Amino acid sequence: MLVRVLPYAKTLLSSVINEGDIAVDATAGNGHDTLFLANLVGETGFVYAFDIQQQAVDVTIQRLKENGLEHRARVILDGHEQLSKYVQEEVAGAIFNLGYLPGGNHDIITKGETTISAIEQLLSLLKIGGIIVLVIYHGHEGGKEERDAVIEFVKSLPQKYVHVLRYEFINQKNDPPFIIALEKMKKLPDLK
Ligand SMILES: C[S@@+](CC[C@H](N)C(=O)[O-])C[C@H]1O[C@@H](n2cnc3c(N)ncnc32)[C@H](O)[C@@H]1O
């Protein structure tokens, strides 16, 4: 069976995040991925999760508490473009779910410019062999602009430093999400 997009995102994260590692959920939302990462990093690792909506931060903390894992994560009410203010350690893996908060305000969406800024910051913090997974939702208003900006940016990354994968079912209707994954191969020079 072909692995579906969302399980594949988890497979990629599980392949690089181990007990004791630092992981980032760049778009906490309802906290499902933050919880998933908190399980992967174990008692000795740590997760940084970001969201610009108080509602998302509250729901994510609540979900961690329900699972007894709130001590494994810091859920930050700030944009992921501020990432390097909060994270200085080497990061093993990170996930972005682009778009709007399911069940929330559909006008509050991730944007190309800030997403790209967060990816750049993460690429510099990432371990060699670490992975950033982007789940790209692009059916909503503004989604195609962000998708195109992110793809243009990741395509321009030199392959000597970063391997870039696109994983997508190409015959599905209604703009299904797809994955872009970045694997750091070598310490990057300043990309700017
Ligand atoms: C698709 S949802 C995330 C879903 C989430 N991973 C889950 O498991 O439920 C996207 C989230 O990104 C948040 N967001 C939008 N812009 C952001 C930014 N600049 N930094 C961090 N989060 C942002 C939105 O508030 C929204 O909650």
TrEMBL record:
Natural source organism: Ureibacillus thermosphaericus
Protein name listed in UniProt: 16S rRNA C1402 N4-methylase RsmH
UniProt GO BP: methylation
Swiss-Prot/TrEMBL keywords: Methyltransferase, Transferase
GO molecular function, one term: methyltransferase activity
